Amino acid sequence: MLRVEETSGRVRAAPARWTVGDVARIDPARCPVAPLIGADDVARISDDLDIWDAWPVQDDDGTPAAIGAGETLWMALGAPRFDDPDARHGHARIHLLRHRDGRWQDLGPAMPDGFAPGSREWSGSAVLEADGTTLTLYFTAAGRRGEAETSFEQRLFRAHARLVIEDDTPALRDWRDLAEIVVRDPRYYMASDAGTGAIGTIKAFRDPAYFRDPADGRRALFFAGSRAEATGEFNGVIGRIDADRDGAPHWQLQPPIVDATDVNNELERPHVVAHGGRYYLFWSTQRHVFAPACAHAPTGLYGMVAESLDGDWTPLNGSGLVFANPADAPRQAYSWLVLPDLSVISFIDDWGRGTADAGARRFGATFAPVLHLTLDGERATLAGD
């Protein structure tokens, strides 16, 4: 039975709570961990381009769309290399990547200069229609184009393009129909520029991830948000935007579906995978954005499971943690994305170093080795564990 609450005269499903008690079940000494990343795993796409958050150009069911024999297209945030890797966030563009014969190729910025409405482009998702040509990109516009001072305002946009092959190289042409998907509802979601802008304190209204329900064809976007009217700084939530059931390209913003108030500030890149008749909601988060009462929780992939897209959402493994980075390299990878075949992609962050290690940050800025999950009801493990 769904929990309900009364809000402004309307009855709606209450968000699932990710609580301090859930996180207390995590034992850092015994939690599942990803394999240690070594030097042989760090294969850059380009010497002068750093990439991080990535997602496939997907079919409607979430599977990476095949555009040729063994060939897929991906998108990732990219920026020039900086001495301080955190500087990349102020220069992020969405790049189009080709994966063919086990190799990655950077095809340049996905959208033309001056098209996106922000000063930077942050994470999203991309869907290729059945015609194999029409592409829809859902993305985060950070800041405003032409702003004099970099801001952390985040807005959710959609745009269409045409996928073409020119001289054996994929390209996106005829960008059009740029539109803001929804406007933030201040009853439920805090303004995204309400934080200080310091790493770990930024508020969220970002990362739209597309999902089509195999049970009834409903389309939804899941995104990272911040709870309105929270009294503390740790107020991360996961929101949902529903498409009209008649197929019209109209979207309606829903109240949060997961609330991590007093637990965590950022539930990043939330996304859903349908498996075994259940729905698995995953997100990434980092140790430094947990509240003090949850400071033992590691950087890792977290999630919940439900019998339907409408909930009730229950923390996986009793705590929400699916797996963490290893203790010897607690920041080695981040931004995990689970695909329908339960493979898991991420990027290499500060690899090969422990928390106390001195010296320059070793930012990998490329794809991490692919991992694989096993899902069984409310249990989620790394395959082979």
TrEMBL record:
Q: Which InterPro entries match?
A: Glyco_hydro_68, Glyco_hydro_beta-prop_sf
Q: Which controlled-vocabulary keywords does the entry list?
A: Hydrolase
Q: What CDD domains does this protein map onto?
A: GH68
Molecular function terms, GO-annotated: hydrolase activity
Is Coiled coil one of the keywords UniProt gives this record? no
**Family affiliation:** Belongs to the glycosyl hydrolase 68 family.
Name used for this protein in its record: Glycoside hydrolase family 68 protein
Originating species: Sphingomonas kyungheensis
